[in-house]
Write a structure and sequence with these properties.
Layout (H helix, E strand, L loop, with lengths): L4 H14 L1 H5 L6 H22 L8 H27 L2 H8 L2 H12 L6 H18 L2 H4 L5 H23 L5 H22 L9 H28 L2 H7 L3 H12 L6 H17 L7 H7 L1
Helix pairs in contact: 1-11, 1-13, 3-4, 3-10, 3-11, 4-5, 4-9, 4-10, 5-9, 6-9, 6-12, 7-14
Length: about 300
């Protein structure tokens, strides 16, 4: 497989995102306020840079509104996902949120000119099966179909809508301008949410502030600048499915730094998940009809 710049950017973005759950598990701040500072500190770094270098280009009104909508969608995804984690387990919330490739595929089929190919649907099924094995079948016996369940599913839907809308906007708007508008909208939106829920904006330790800055620079700026670049050049269905691989990287990082166990079952699930992602990048479209006729 030829490693092009967009694919390298996607890999870089996934690596940067994978660090985030490890930082959150340190529990140095609340989940919502952490998300607020992730956006706010990121735009504090980005805004002066794009203004001083004159790399910010004001898009058309329609694209400004869509970029701001992307910020609200992304922020809503983070907020809902955090509520789901607080009301249940991180495992249940993460698994249900990772249904987003399915929603992206359906949305792309209904609204985008570039329809998902057979490779995507096969890869999605294989990858989700790998995710189930990675989590463990016994987990489903203990799943609660309550508000947390609905919020986790809703988080995946919001995430998929964000990916679809951002794909459309990034076809007309440069990455830095898009990120600036999106982060400004995210910061304002999450600021209002945190204030209305009486979240504390101060009183954190020096370590907590360092982690918040790390989240903003690595998990937001580096990650989403890279992913946004990849989004401009790679099918959004491939992007959404590839993002599932962050679960594997996070598991490895948790094993290295948090002493969490990695079982043979998790390794098998990870291999299957990666194989499913690889199917979507197969250049030739897989024809199920021809396959079974040739058999």
């Amino acid at each position: 497989m030829k490693l092009t710049k967009p694919r390298l950017a996607l890999i870089t973005g996934i690596l940067c995102i994978s660090i985030f759950p490890i930082l959150i598990k340190l529990r140095l701040t609340g989940g919502l306020i952490s998300a607020f500072y992730r956006m706010t500190i990121a735009v504090t770094f980005l805004l002066p840079y794009v203004l001083l270098t004159k790399k910010f280009k004001l898009p058309k009104t329609k694209n400004i509104l869509l970029a701001a909508l992307c910020g609200v969608l992304f922020s809503s995804d983070v907020a809902v996902w955090n509520i789901a984690i607080q009301d249940s387990s991180a495992t249940q919330a993460s698994l249900l949120t990772n249904l987003s490739p399915l929603w992206v595929g359906i949305g792309a089929f209904l609204f985008l000119k570039s329809k998902p190919k057979t490779n995507f649907w096969i890869g999605t099924v294989v990858s989700l099966f790998g995710m189930v094995i990675l989590v463990g079948f016994e987990f489903f016996m203990e799943m609660n179909f309550n508000r947390a369940f609905l919020f986790a599913v809703f988080s995946g839907v919001l995430y998929s809508i964000y990916l679809l809308v951002s794909k459309n906007v990034l076809s007309d708007v440069d990455i830095l301008s898009f990120m600036t508008i999106s982060l400004l909208a995210s910061s304002v939106y999450l600021g209002i949410v945190c204030f209305s829920l009486n979240e504390s904006f101060t009183g954190f330790s020096n370590t907590a502030w360092f982690v918040l800055v790390l989240q903003a620079v690595i998990c937001q700026l580096c990650a989403w600048l890279s992913i946004s670049y990849a989004t401009q050049h790679i099918r959004i269905t491939r992007i959404s499915l590839s993002l599932l691989s962050q679960a594997i990287i996070t598991a490895i990082l948790a094993w290295l730094f948090l002493e969490e166990k990695i079982t043979l079952q998790m390794i098998l699930g990870g291999i299957i998940l990666l194989f499913g992602i690889r199917i979507t990048f197969y250049n030739k479209t897989i024809s199920l009809t021809k396959y079974f006729l040739n058999k």
